[in-house]
Amino acid sequence: MARRKNRFGLEQLKKFAERHYLMTDGRYTKISVVYQFAYNMENGVIVELGTGCGLSTVALCYGTNYGGYSLPVHTVDHFVSFKGWSGEEYVPENKYTAMERFEKAGIDPIMHEDDFEDAAQEWKGGEISLLFWDAGSYLMESHIAAWMNHVAIGGIILLHDTPDMRLGTKRVVDMLYKEGKYSDAQYPGNGFTSILKVC
Q1: Rounded Cα–Cα distance for residues 182 and 164 (Å)
Q2: pLDDT tens track of the chain, all 199 residues?
Q3: Cα torsion at 163, 169, 175, 179 (round to 10°)?
Q4: How far is the C-alpha of 120 from the C-alpha of 140, rounded, in Å?
Q5: Of these four, 1, 143, 184, 195, which has the most CB atoms within 10 Å of its CB?
Q6: Domains of the chain
Q7: Rounded to two decimals, what is the model's pTM?
Q8: What span, in angstroms and rounded, lies between the C-alpha atoms of 182 and 196?
């Protein structure tokens, strides 16, 4: 499939983020990394676990659209009240904030309001080329394990919030390697780990 460029470039993404989100250095880095991964996906679908107010969802959509492949982007969140590991407050109203910003961004991601594991059990969206974890909460092995059968061979599992081992990310990485189906762990830095599914 040939790439077809359009208006959803990285600079346009940053300008949109500056207008509609409170941006920090960490958030600029996050949207840049997420954008690039989505840009490089040529087939399958993209799934994000943790919608929040939709900043990373916008980055995923802009990335795949500007990359020219315009893959479907699904985002999953149960939209309940809780305090994230960094102290950020998450509230049910985030759902409506995200929807409003998707409309302003000119994108149409597929939203799933559900628990991560339940959404995985009900998944009928096809093989996943990029699975992005960004829930802001403690990462459980069961959250990722529930999605593993849906990730395509050659697909990428991208984990955010990885430096703090208290968040459970290292156990998830160890779990994946023990299964023998994953390799090429890369550390793009800035709080990200990416893992390739090889069989």
Answers
A1: 22
A2: 445 455 689 999 999 999 999 999 989 999 999 999 999 999 999 999 999 999 999 999 999 999 889 999 999 999 987 676 666 777 889 999 999 999 999 999 999 999 999 999 999 999 999 999 887 555 667 778 889 889 999 999 998 765 555 666 767 777 778 888 888 666 566 677 788 888 7
A3: -80
A4: 14
A5: 195
A6: 10-197 (3.40.50.150)
A7: 0.89
A8: 6
